[in-house]
Amino acid sequence: MKLSKRAFSKKYNIEIQWLTSLCFLGVIPFSIKRGKRNTVYVEDQAIDLLKKIEHYVECPFCMKKMACVTNKHYKICNPSIEIKKDLYSGVYLKNHKKTERQKTAQSEKLKERFLTSEGEITRKQIGEASKKLNADPEYKKKQKETFKLVQNRPGMKQLHRKRALKMWANPDYQEKRKEYVKQNIELLRESARKARQYSKKQSNLHINYKKNMLEKGLSGFISEYPYGPYSIDEADPLAKIVVEVDGCYWHGCSLCGFKGDDGIKATDKRKTSFLKNRGWLVLRIKEHEIKKDPYVAIEMIRNIQQIRRQNNINLIKQSFLKGSLKVKSMVNKELNPTWVPINNILRHHTPHKNMYKICTDMGSVVVTEDHSLFSWQTKEPIKASDLKSGDLIVGLPIKEFEPAKVISTEIVNSAKYSYDVSVPDSENAVLDNGILVHNSYSISGVSLDIEKSSKYQSIADVFSAQYDKTLEAAKQSIKIIKGLRQFRYGIGISSALGPLTRPGIQSRRSMIESGSVGTWS
Prior knowledge:
Blueprint: E1 2-4, H1 5-11, H2 16-24, E2 30-33, E3 39-43, E4 57-58, E5 65-66, E6 68-69, H3 71-77, E7 89-90, H4 100-114, H5 117-134, H6 137-151, H7 156-168, H8 171-183, H9 185-198, H10 204-215, E8 222-227, E9 230-236, E10 241-246, H11 248-251, H12 262-276, E11 281-286, H13 287-292, H14 298-322, E12 326-329, E13 338-341, E14 344-349, E15 355-360, E16 364-368, E17 372-374, E18 381-383, E19 392-395, E20 402-412, E21 417-422, E22 428-430, E23 436-438, E24 440-443, E25 446-449, H15 454-480, H16 508-513
Parallel strand pairs: 10-11
Antiparallel strand pairs: 1-3, 2-3, 4-5, 6-7, 8-9, 9-10, 12-13, 14-21, 15-16, 15-20, 17-18, 19-20, 22-23, 24-25
């Protein structure tokens, strides 16, 4: 006996929407009678095909068969009952999928709900639940595993490649993309640099070759050196030499018969052109050359490094003496950096000072405990020892100063010497990694600001007066006594003024400080 869908749901107390889903999922056989109004008919015996829990759940009060029994249904069915979480129950069918029409209708219904005051509460609840879920390490782990499984499916890379080719075949897309790149070239370069920084990959071939370089005493090279949008395998910034260790299979090799990956080869060409246009010497060493001789080209690199370093040092010195050596600086707390000439370069003896390594999202810097960076909120100097994780300091990622977030601060081993640049007027300078540092240095362990320190001025005045006094004393001594070694050349000296004097008694300090008769004055 055939029953209409509505009659079937009334007879067996089954939710009509869930009955429709079961019909279209193929769990219950049905037929459609065409006419002005299409009617769905179901065999009366089809109820025997449904199994509890597997195909439906049942309300314990009204015995209604449905997809899931919600707390809302319990409230309607029996308002006196105390709702508990464990009462919520539902059934899940593997092949249960919503139609596009159902998805659209649900989406519109949700949009309308979110516009109400109740919807705002729902949005907040969803946001809190999402944050809680994303904070769960187990969920993150599962999410990563699922993503890897999806990306490693057979033919996934081929599918992405086909889509990309289809997209780039469209001339309108090409024009739009070119225009976008022209307008945002600096942002794209910075994005590429950061992406490369967070995905550093060193092959075993590269690691072993670096070990051989160090074994032969070839130093000065930095591994995975970030420059522009690229990361260089081995770079000497002073000599401006690049050493790229290329695997034959991926980068291509005519001798080994490998074609190489087209994307990697295109990147290699762009990188080489980018570096050469900026004065770098690019040396590429192939995998088969290293396998034949593990120390290949190391002596050649050493010779080139010495010549280029000396040439570059001379150029830097000449530029510094002419006053044309400049650095980016923040003037009058403006966000646009200004090129300012370097007034002096200072080296400090700092084995007694704590060194702080400040790691930010732009890079890291190692400074002494009393050296200053710049607070983003006030644009005023703040000591490295006062910085904490989460603080914002001034940085220069691209064209304008932006906040750099402090990730961590740690005390590292003290250095024998630390270096500083003296920049007039602005009193600050931007490092290569984009961090703004204060123009300060120390004398006798006292931290000083070049412009503001009155203590430095007093020390300078005392030294100047003492020097004049010493110079006058030296002139008088030379006139009175003959054949003595002058004090400025070193050790304590003896004199012929009396039998009680002996070597070491009249040191440089005693000659300067004492003013009594019979001594140096």
